[in-house]
Amino acid sequence: MIALSLAEIAEVVGGQTYDIPDPSVRVTGPVVRDSREAGPGSLFVAFVGERVDGHDFARQVVEAGAAAVLASRPVGVPAIVVEDVQTALGALARHVVQKLGTTLVALTGSAGKTSTKDLIAQVLQRKAPTVWTPGSLNNEIGLPLTALGATEETKFLVLEMGARGVGHIRYLADLTPPKIGLVLNVGSAHIGEFGGRDQIARAKGELVEVLPEEGAAILNADDPLVRAMASRTKAKVILFGESGEADVRAENVRLTDSGQPAFRLQTPSGASDVTMRLYGEHHVSNALAAAAVAHELGMSAEEIATALSEAGSLSRWRMEVTERPDGVTVVNDAYNANPESMRAALRALAAMGNGRRTWAVLGKMAELGDEALAEHDAVGRLAVRLNVSKLVAVGGREASWLQLGAYNEGSWGEESVHVSDAQAAVDLLRSELRPGDVVLVKASRSVGLESVAQALLDSGVEGEVAAR
Fold first, then answer.
1. Is the model's pLDDT at 321 over the cut of 70?
2. Distance between CA atoms of 412 and 366, rounded to whole angstroms?
3. Chain center to CA of 262
4. 187-203: buried (b, 16+ CB within 10 Å) or exposed (e) per residue?
5. Which residues, 6 or more positions from 301, have their beta carbon under 8 angstroms from its beta carbon?
């Protein structure tokens, strides 16, 4: 974070200082909420969680060098005490962002946010120092913590914004007002919480509503609900996609033999060829979104194409592809799942197979509400239509719907199997995998199927995998 004195921070957040001998002492290190990350000059934010109270670690972080604690009560060590720690953290982030004047890029969407954010960051980093959201820390706590990581050298700040209801994006955008707002898509993620796609579109579109007139709204031309958001902004509108009407578009899209997308990138300033290191055709849309942001910020088509072709995955468990010594390829996409990302992952698996046996180890997609049965059934059926060699459905009711969809789609469905938990899936795979097979592992985060992928990669290591 930019250096601020404890007195300045107290004024910004409306707090009172306690046990601070010298209010002119400055915070010169990062703002952290994990006591293990506290170090010299840092500011520790004490949240009260369901299991852990951050205030209990106050003395420990100060002994580790933290300048002070942002707390909701006095803790016996230097502290700035506020009524609500989350509100204070947001106020501090807003102050720092406004003081820096950094170009802020915000993005949202039902699927692909983290992968696209990682692509944008890797492209812009080539132009100037860039700070971006680590992993998926895109909520009311993760977003301000990321913003506070910016310094005087930071030219671009790329923030992923998540939402579970109407008003969430507007709240986040008020903390860190963006100049460029990107909406990827409107899908089925969290549809059970939102109550329908129209409500999801309403929530995601809050991002373009807050953009300034001199800003830019970057919208997916291939998604009608996103494209319609053009009427909700006073900012310049830039369309991306495969549509001929898109300002930044892909032509001659294809997959390499290994399942990696390649295409001709067309921008208003020129064209250049891209061959990505990531896997799956769905990354074409993500790449075009990143290209549109980079074009708006002055990068040439050639610069963008080179950066996209060299970009990798920065976040764990998102189409992580690892080949074992025996030739079995494990695709760990277990961080999260919704119907759109599940379909994209299955299509990537089919492309990667290229004559090899393919396995889809799938678990439930959470928060689908009344759509849950139909969506799980549809994914099982798609696995059959894509000629995936074998489906392993892991878990309870939702997994049974996956397996039933595959079985009802046709005779291949007899190759599908329903197992109770992660350990059962590992036992089955260890007994039946052959050299050269490709295994996709994917489910919502709560299922914890990354344990299956890890067990498969721990070649020759026996032992229990925690059942989820």
1. yes
2. 26
3. 22
4. bbbbbeebeeeebbbbb
5. 265, 266, 267, 269, 270, 271, 272, 295
Nearest partner of 450 among 434, 462, 468, judged by Cα: 468
Q: Which stretch of DSSP H or E encloses residue 8?
A: helix 6-13
Conformational region of residue 162, where left means phi above 0, alpha means psi within -120 to 50, and beta covers everything else: beta
Calculate the alpha carbon distances from 27 to 30, 42, 123, 132, 273 in Å. Answer: 8, 6, 31, 21, 46
Q: List pLDDT tens digits, range 324-372.
A: 999 999 999 998 898 988 998 999 999 999 889 999 999 999 989 889 9
Describe the strand order of the beta sheet including 68-71 as a list of residue ranges.
Answer: 16-18, 79-81, 68-71, 43-45, 31-32
**H/E stretch holding 119:** helix 113-124
List of residues 6+ apart from 192 with CB closer than 8 A: 367, 368, 369, 370, 371, 372
Q: What is the rounded CA–CA span in Å between residue 322 and residue 332?
A: 8
Would you give the end-to-end CA distance of the chain in angstroms? 39
Distance separating alpha carbons of residues 447 and 295, to the nearest angstrom: 39
Determine the Cα–Cα distance for residues 50 and 33; give it in Å rounded to an integer.
Answer: 15
CA-to-CA distance for 182 and 207, rounded, in angstroms? Answer: 8
pTM attached to this predicted model = 0.88
pLDDT digits (tens, 9 = 90+) for 67-106: 999 999 999 999 999 999 999 999 999 999 999 989 999 9
Contacts of residue 331, defined as CB under 8 A and 6 or more positions apart, other chains included, come to 279, 319, 320, 321, 345, 348, 349, 352, 438, 439, 440, 441, 453
Which residue in this structure is represented by tokens 């205030």? Answer: 55
What radius of gyration, in Å, describes the C-alpha atoms of the chain? 24
Q: How confident is the model at residue 165, as a pLDDT?
A: 85
CB 153 within 8 A of CB 328: no
pLDDT of residue 384 exceeding 50, the answer is yes
List the beta bridge partners of residue 422. none
Nearest by Cα to 92 from 9, 158, 166, 169: 9
